[in-house]
Write a structure and sequence with these properties.
An 8-stranded mixed beta sheet has the order 4-11-10-9-8-5-6-7, with helices on both faces. A 4-stranded antiparallel beta sheet has the order 12-13-15-14, covered by helices on one side. A 3-stranded antiparallel beta sheet has the order 1-3-2. It has about 500 residues and is α/β, with parallel strands linked by helices. It is about 40% helix and about 15% strand. A hairpin with a 3-residue loop joins strand 2 and strand 3. Helix 5 runs antiparallel to helix 9. It is elongated and about 90 Å long. The chain is built from 17 helices and 15 strands. Bound molecules: pyridoxal-5'-phosphate. The site of pyridoxal-5'-phosphate has 14 residues, from helix 8.
Length: about 500
């Protein structure tokens, strides 16, 4: 097509919000990049093009000037305007910013690491906005003191005393001190503020640790079933995933030590295993520490919801028992406050704190200052402790409502697993209904729950097989909502039977 035809075929939309000169600029740029108007081609004079497009000369002039400033055109008043001769010959269809580009295939493939990264979280579900009973692992936002939070934040903006430049990578110093005091007092963690690195949720903590500590091919013990959010960072680091069965005492350390003795790292949720809800026994804790010390391996302790224990005070952390400096403690505010806050922290062994902070700086310099500062005030002024007490009492009531409703309406269909801690309840499906069938029926009845298979890593073999089970969250719902949800669940699950294999039956007897 002749350049002039191309320009004539550039209808401008007079009703669009985008100014006419901008529309013309974009169209000319696309035509140049695609090679439709070749390097060195002379463009019509501004007055002439304005006439042909029925726009003012100023409109054309503004488009030409912008393209000149960006190097697409060159020329001077009176001498004509040309497409820059220095532009390399453009490939047809190589438009950089054409609408709809996101639907096209990548021009170059992702790197192998990039492809792993892009796929690694695909198994992990995002929360949609509609909160339905019994969404798992979700705190009760109806109990959060948003007004207090808002006032604390407003006070910071009013005083303007916060450092708003680039800060230290390890996080806001007052927050690190307060977290340190909290963890020592309530979790028996042995630490100094210098060991604490504030992260964007525990997810970032795991990503940084995986990058820092693991070479490709090194083994990582992962509980199976277990937290899939943890598997992703280890996979991205190229680690060999070593699924470890879980029984009533927690991760089966003897199994893992026999099967994967050379692993470099063990990831565990000792206080409250996700999803089964069991607490790791003291015997297992000591066994795990012994293995890590002997094999110079790391243990990552994910202590995500330990604030919530209903039958006594929270249990002490595994980190508090460690004398060999091999436990890395990871905590989060996602359960005790809310996930969208994206704040978590690591208590690193002293020599790891500095490399970890430097790795954090590579990813995002440091976490946003305002949420850290507000959280520090929230803790310092007693709101945090009050919120924990309040939510613990409310969740205890919600948990009791759940246990009661399940007992009265679904006895013989669902068998409750351990329920002394956390935000969720794991139940076995005991009426012979397959897990997928039970979950599908529940979902169809508008009940949000997760089958245990959701927590099974694809690498897990038959040793990690579980009897059918479901995870139901109770913390985010009032007792009335819980009773109504159990009613819907009852209707959905009351019929159906299927055979289960013997191994699965035996494991169920050990767990429920
Ligand atoms: C076992 C476990 N660890 C940690 C988290 C929290 O992750 P984050 O701090 O990235 O929100 C969750 C959330 O569901 C979890 O289940």
């Amino acid at each position: 097509m002749h350049d002039h035809d191309i320009l004539a075929a550039m209808p401008l939309d007079r009703d669009a919000a985008t100014p006419l000169f901008r529309q013309l600029y974009v169209r000319l740029k696309e035509a140049i990049l695609a090679g439709d108007i070749g390097a060195g081609a002379r463009l019509p004079a501004t007055r002439e093009l304005g006439r042909r497009l029925a726009v003012s000369r100023q409109t054309v002039l503004a488009a030409y000037e912008q393209l000149m400033a960006e190097g697409y055109l060159q020329g001077a008043v009176g001498k004509g305007t040309f497409v820059s001769a220095s532009l390399p010959a453009a490939a047809k269809g190589a438009r950089g910013d054409a609408a709809g580009d996101e639907h096209h295939a990548l021009v170059r493939p992702l790197s192998a690491r990039g492809a792993t990264m892009a796929a690694a979280m695909a198994r992990v579900r995002h929360h949609d906005s509609q909160l339905r009973t019994f969404r798992a692992s979700m705190p009760g936002l109806d109990l959060f003191p948003f007004d207090v939070w808002r006032k604390l934040e407003a006070r910071h903006w009013r005083r303007r005393a916060l450092p708003l430049g680039y800060g230290g990578a390890a996080g806001h110093a007052p927050l690190r001190e307060l977290l340190c005091a909290y963890l020592k007092a309530s979790r028996g963690v042995r630490c100094t503020p210098e060991q604490i690195i504030v992260t964007s949720g525990s997810q970032q903590a795991l990503y940084l640790l995986a990058q820092l500590l693991l070479a490709p091919g090194e083994g990582v013990w992962l509980e199976s079933p277990g937290y899939q959010g943890a598997a992703a960072p280890f996979e991205v680091a190229g680690a060999r995933i070593c699924p470890v069965p879980v029984d009533a005492e927690g991760m089966d350390v003897a199994y893992a030590a026999a099967r994967y003795p050379d692993a470099r790292l063990a990831f565990a949720t000792p206080s409250h295993q996700l999803p089964l809800g069991v607490t790791m026994s003291l015997g297992r804790r000591l066994e795990l520490l012994r293995w890590a010390e002997t094999n110079r391996a790391w243990i990552v302790e994910d202590d995500y919801d330990s604030e919530y224990r209903y039958t006594g005070p929270p249990l002490a952390s595994l980190q508090g028992l460690d004398r060999g400096g091999c436990v890395i403690y990871v905590g989060t505010l996602s359960k005790v406050l809310f996930p969208g806050l994206r704040l978590g922290y690591v208590v690193a062994p002293p020599a790891l704190a500095e490399p970890l902070a430097r790795a954090k700086a590579v990813v995002d310099r440091h976490s946003a200052i305002m949420p850290q500062a507000v959280l520090a005030d929230f803790i310092q002024e007693g709101h945090f402790a009050r919120h924990i007490r309040r939510t613990r009492d409310a969740y205890a009531e919600r948990r009791a409502a759940m246990l009661d409703a399940l007992d009265s309406r679904l006895r013989g269909v669902l068998a409750c697993g351990p329920s002394d801690a956390g935000l969720d309840l794991c139940v076995g499906v005991t009426n012979g209904l397959g897990e997928a069938e039970a979950a599908a029926r529940a979902l169809a009845a508008g009940v949000d729950l997760r089958p245990l298979s959701y927590y099974t890593h694809p690498a897990a073999g038959p040793d990690c097989a579980m009897p059918p089970g479901l995870l139901l969250g109770f913390s985010a719902f009032t007792p009335e909502q819980i009773r109504a949800g159990v009613g819907r669940l009852e209707q959905a699950l009351m019929q159906g039977a299927s055979q289960q294999d013997d191994r699965v039956q035996r494991r169920r007897q050990r767990l429920y």
